[in-house]
Design brief:
Oligomer: heterodimer
Structural class of chain B: alpha/beta
Strand order of the largest sheet of chain A: 14-18-19-17-16-15
Number of helices of chain B: 6
Largest sheet of chain A: 6 strands, mixed
Chain lengths: 717, 137
């Protein structure tokens, strides 16, 4: 019988996908010909961790693939191989392969190994030294394994005189596993292996808590370790190694003193001097102060610790060591409970208004304080759902790199505001529209280098992606310095497609709006990237579904800027409360154009279009909410009530209501989860007095216009 | 040869002389995988570890080791090709039990991988492998 590992897979996959994203970002920093040790080490460690976890869980194909990848990266970090463009491309491709293998493995589907095997072969050829500038092929690689090859470094680095010795820090590391460590694919063995790559590692195990073999839980690691690492690597590099074990171990890292080690010898390329891997030649006894100590006479490093290059002193990105991973359902549950407290608080507030007695004022003051606290609590919980938009932005460097090389364009991507936070649900849904917009900028916007030079622009085009808070919303701006939109061309195209009348004259802004019409494309030629006219209408629809909007501005010859405005969260909506009969409904503010009162005879009956009214230059249908929801209105006369002009999915209509009540933020409760999906209703909320109010789904209601008189139907379970 | 295949231990005098009351013990101490145990009630007990002693195999390995009773328990780790912290901890747990019982744990062989991983985790002394590890490169 073997241990059931399925229960532990979810976390492994989740962490692996995150690591693959980080690996991709690091790979994009790799520059052919440059030995950026820090970046290579980061990529190596990720591959190593994934390999270890995959091996532990028996995902042998993934383990085998990452093993080959890791071997190649090890050759790079040992300076036995140089980073080449081909290698960068292959490693980036391996990121895609790992994602697809992981996705298939997670879904228990058969793994398509066709690409991974080809890539593995390619890596093996690279490991053998093929494709290396000046390499003598496999034979030299075999020799490399025994003798480190000359390190080729850029001239700027080579001319820098290296000091004869380096000051290494002695780190005392206390590491104690928590019960889930092993089952989450974190093997201390692998962690210590990686640590030993940073310098000289001494390991002392405390087995006093290990129970007898008869009573031990084999998956619960009960050994505690005291590690002593002598390394020139920064603390962040050590923390990075323990990153995967975060939350599953007790970790204490403290600086115990310093030691002096031999500096790595960097060879001049022209001289072709052999540069052996740096070896720790001096081991100072741990000291309690950080005072540098003189170098003792060289002694051999202990046999147990493989000599490895010390990591560079340049600091790696420090991971946040104080975070925990929580299922989104738990947060939503918490948010829901807080929402209930808000409602209860509101109900108590209503009751207290009419309360009379000696303590009435104290009661009201206490409730006001409670309301403040509850609102703060609600905001805090909602902040937990917020994630930095950088997690979505991180996919763009790769996209820009791939597309620009395919299209023969030179494009620089500039990212800003990656730390701006956005609701997780919004974040998940914004990725695809953003990809579309960035692709449009690259494909349609930025010109070919020759065209740019002819237009007096720099050869390299710029795509700028930025996120920032504005009021209660998040703005994401995608801009480029390409050739911009030609409103004349847009209008001609729209005329030829019959989207507008042949004699219609449009302003520039109206012409830009044509971009969002279904089936509209400005591309002269259809490519696999764009030109099929599928996209911008979908982009706008997706963003509208998130309660946001998209605007486009362009200057011919200068570039295009697209601005997406999104709500901070989907859990709360700013709504207008309206009254129909005895019922209260919530209309999302973003859908409201304006409200007006019609005089008698202000409406018309149009054949096949029902009741309409004149609004500006248009006739809009009237939706009588009391008919849709089957309630008794205060009056059926249009002049006795109000018409609220609403907009959704590019359509407008007038909602006939009794009167407006007020504006308020309401917590959305899903009807689908708690009852059933209802056409025209986006959710429900509980009002202060405890009554339930339906939140209207305006696009859904507008789709119902032809059947507005029909009774409301449940459309799902 | 299938590396996961159970190793048949050479019959030793104690095993040969196993009494009729022994079958129950034998049934209990012959696991499906991870290690093969040959023991006599009072004398030494020999356990041959399989090629893979990782978290995946710990359920079987624990059963084998828990069933290995004797003084000394002699471990043969010469076949071990893959071992992780979970596997090594089980061996430490066996060493703890032997110590609590006042019985010995000995090694007849240990693979390079076993020694390397034991060393990396600082468990050489806890496992009583110091004598064998002394010859490590």
């Amino acid at each position: 019988m073997s241990l059931d590992m399925d229960q532990f897979h979810e976390v492994f996959f989740e962490e692996s996908f995150e690591s693959i994203d980080a690996m991709e970002t690091a790979l994009l920093r790799l520059t052919p010909g440059l030995a950026d040790l820090e970046t290579i080490n980061t990529i190596f460690r990720t591959a190593h961790s994934i390999k270890g976890g995959a091996g532990m869980f028996g995902f042998n194909d993934i383990a085998s693939f990452t093993h080959t990848m890791e071997t190649l990266l090890d050759e790079l970090r040992s300076h036995r191989l140089q980073v080449t463009t081909l290698m960068c491309d292959g490693l980036l491709q391996s990121v895609d392969v790992m994602r697809s293998l992981m996705t298939a493995q997670k879904a228990h589907q058969p793994l398509d190994l066709s690409v991974s095997q080809v890539l593995q072969q390619e890596f093996k050829r690279m490991i053998a030294g093929e494709g290396q500038p000046g390499a003598a092929g496999a034979a030299s690689a075999a020799a490399n394994a025994a003798t480190p090859a000359p390190v080729v470094v850029p001239a700027a680095v080579a001319v820098t005189a290296a000091p004869a010795t380096l000051e290494a820090v002695i780190w005392n590391i206390g590491f104690k596993a928590l019960p889930a460590l092993l089952t989450r694919g974190n093997d201390p063995l692998r962690i210590f292996d990686e640590l030993s790559g940073l310098g000289q590692l001494a390991v002392e195990a405390d087995c006093s808590a290990v129970p007898d073999v008869d009573s031990i839980d084999p998956a619960d690691c009960r050994i505690a370790w005291k590690l002593t690492l002598t390394s020139t690597a920064p603390r962040s590099a050590i923390e990075l190694i323990f990153e995967w074990a975060e939350g599953d171990c007790e970790l204490h890292i403290e600086r115990a003193g310093v030691a002096v080690v031999a500096a790595p010898v960097i060879a001049m390329p022209a001289a072709g001097v052999v540069a052996p891997a740096p070896v720790v030649v001096a081991e100072a006894a741990p000291v309690s102060t950080s005072t540098p100590v003189p170098a003792p006479s060289p002694v051999a490093a202990p046999a147990s610790t493989a000599a490895a290059p010390a990591a560079p002193a340049k600091a790696a990105a420090s991971p946040d060591g104080n975070s925990i991973r929580v299922a989104i359902e738990k947060i939503d549950e918490l948010l829901n409970t807080v929402g209930e407290i808000v409602i209860t608080n509101s109900m108590l507030g209503q009751l207290a208004k009419d309360f009379v007695g000696v303590d009435a004022d104290r009661l009201r003051s206490g409730l006001a304080q409670l309301e403040t606290n509850v609102r703060e609590l609600q905001e805090s919980v909602m902040r937990v759902r917020m994630l930095p938009v950088g997690s979505v932005f991180s996919r763009f460097p790769r996209l820009v790199r791939d597309l620009s090389s395919r299209l023969g364009k030179q494009i620089r991507l500039q990212l800003a505001g990656e730390h701006t936070e956005l609701d997780k649900t919004v974040l998940e849904k914004i990725g695809d529209p953003l990809v579309h917009l960035v692709r449009n900028s690259i494909d349609h916007g930025i010109e070919l280098p020759a065209e740019r030079i002819a237009a007096g622009k720099p050869e390299e085009g710029l795509v700028h992606l930025e996120a920032f808070h504005k009021g209660g919303s998040i703005n994401i701006v995608i801009s480029d310095d390409g050739h911009g939109l030609d409103s004349r061309k847009l209008i001609d195209k729209a005329r030829s497609k019959g989207l507008i009348a042949t004699d219609a004259e449009l302003t520039d802004e109206q012409a830009y709006e044509l971009i969002f019409a279904p089936g509209f494309s400005t591309a002269d030629k259809t490519t696999d990237l764009s030109g099929r006219g599928v996209g911008m209408d979908v982009v706008r629809r997706n963003i509208k579904e998130l309660g946001g909007k998209v605007e486009l501005k362009s200057v011919l010859g200068k570039g295009t800027t697209t601005t997406i405005t999104l709500p901070l969260t989907l859990a709360i909506v700013d709504g207008q409360t309206v009254q129909v009969g005895t019922e209260t409904y919530i209309v999302p503010l973003t859908a409201i154009v304006e409200s007006l009162q019609l005089r008698d005879h202000g409406t018309h009956q149009v054949y096949q279009h029902g009741e309409v009214f004149h609004f500006r230059d248009d006739y809009l249908p009237i939706i009588r909410l009391h008919e849709v929801f089957g309630v008794e209105p205060r009056s059926r006369r249009i002049a006795d009530g109000l018409l609220m002009v609403v907009e959704g999915d590019g359509r407008r209509a007038g909602l006939f209501i009794d009167h407006l009540l007020g504006q308020q933020q309401v917590v959305i409760k899903s009807l689908e989860t708690n009852y059933a999906r209802i056409e025209g209703v986006g959710g429900a909320t509980i009002l202060g007095e405890g009554a339930v109010a339906l939140i209207l789904d305006i696009p859904g209601l507008l789709r119902m216009v032809p059947a507005q008189a029909a009774p409301l139907q449940k459309t799902g379970s | 040869m299938n590396k996961r295949a159970r190793r048949v231990t050479k019959a030793r005098p104690a095993a040969k002389a196993r009494s009729a009351s022994a079958p129950k013990r034998e049934a209990r101490t012959r696991p499906a995988a991870a290690a093969t145990v040959a023991a006599s009630p009072a004398g030494p007990c020999r356990v041959v570890l399989d090629a893979s002693c990782t978290l995946r195999e710990t359920v079987d390995l624990q059963r084998s080791l828990a069933g290995a009773s004797g003084d000394p328990v002699v471990l043969d780790g010469g076949n071990v090709e893959r071992i992780d912290t979970a596997g090594l901890q089980l061996l430490v747990a066996l060493a703890c039990r032997q110590q609590h019982r006042g019985q010995r744990l000995e090694w007849s062989a240990a693979s390079t991988e076993l020694l390397k991983c034991g060393e990396r985790l600082g468990l050489i002394d806890a496992l009583g492998l110091r004598g064998i590890a002394g010859g490590m490169p």
